[in-house]
Amino acid sequence: MQFGRSYEEFEVGATYKHWPGKTVTEYDDHLFCLLTMNHHPLHLDTNYAEETTQFGKNVVVGNYVYSILLGMSVADISGKAIANLEVESLRHVAPTFHGDTLYGETTVLDKTESKSKDDRGVVYVETIGYNQDGKVVCIFRRKVMVPKASYLEARGGEQPGRPVPVPDKVWPGPQA
Question: Which region ranges are annotated with the description Disordered (predicted)?
């Protein structure tokens, strides 16, 4: 299974559909709110949301929606990244509710070789997130510095830093 891409593997215009989706539970949303100290009642207080908001129910906190979509994209986009350089824009265009399932896809908008180091480049991408009904809920654009193949080769290939299992009395090694 591929995890991220080198600079050469990105093509402008390519779209990567991230799999699987993620169903957002009330627990997920509340835990994220509590961990990040976001205590807005729109996310935590059912009575408040039902009685005083246009939605009539709790809305999932936007930073969690963004975090899910960003995480979904790692295997396809930034799994080999050297650095996430910039989030150019982030728009929440529709609410996400408890029980919604999020899906994401990322399109490569542009790519440029590094001017200072010849073993890397910058990929400019747009990710959209949508729910089980196909309703787009979040759109963001970002720039990611990714390695070229030469960078990866110099550091151990596809899985740099991966150790080799050492035979001992518990495991004698691969059997021929």
Answer: 156-176
